[in-house]
Amino acid sequence: MELITSFYYPSNSERLNELKETIKNNIKKKFIEKINLIITEKDLAIFQKENFLDDNYTNKLNIIIYNNTPTYKYLIEVIKNINDKIVCICNSDIEFFLINNEILNKLNDLNCFFLTRHEDNTNKPLIDNYLGSHDAFIMKSNTINNKIKNIDLKYIDYPQNTPGIEALLIIFFIEKLNYVIFNPCFDIKLIHHHKSNFRTYTNKDIIGHVYPNHPLGGIYQNSIWCKYLIYPCKTIN
User: Fold this and answer.
1) How much is the pTM?
2) How far, in whole angstroms, is CA 20 from its chain's centroid?
């Protein structure tokens, strides 16, 4: 599997350590063949100078210089350069654990995986009380590339980690790309490294105003609420 993710230097040192821990751990995973890392020129200069990754694994790193905030439109377009691979678009603070070695073989030309995260090995509030949260999106590269031909991607031209984008992605993948989506978050465990609770988005980044009485409330109360809920599952037929 190839990851498509990003790395940046936040102003908060605790948050920076979380991002470093994530990439240091993921690049050592045997089932992760490559990390396609999106980074700005400015941050790349610091990244290369620090050299905090194990030299034994840096051959698995593919640097993609991009001087803007990646949107899902851009992230999907990155897949155009990846041929015949299982690919995963994921947030920069998500560490992967493959619990079921056969699960990736369940991917085909009809389906994809939208995964909900664990906060640690035992704490999984977004799974136990699932309301639509997803942090990694796994699919076959050739399939998505065929599906997006002649498809306008402006609908998902919003950055990661902004309230509402996951709902947009689900709607887009089901209604525009005709995917069947599964959420095997027990077979592929995502560990969320974000105890710092430091965030870069603001209220201005909230996407849409579809359901004013959003079930999550708070900052999400004016964001999009998806009509499709991809509940956690343990078996994929």
Assistant:
1) 0.90
2) 16
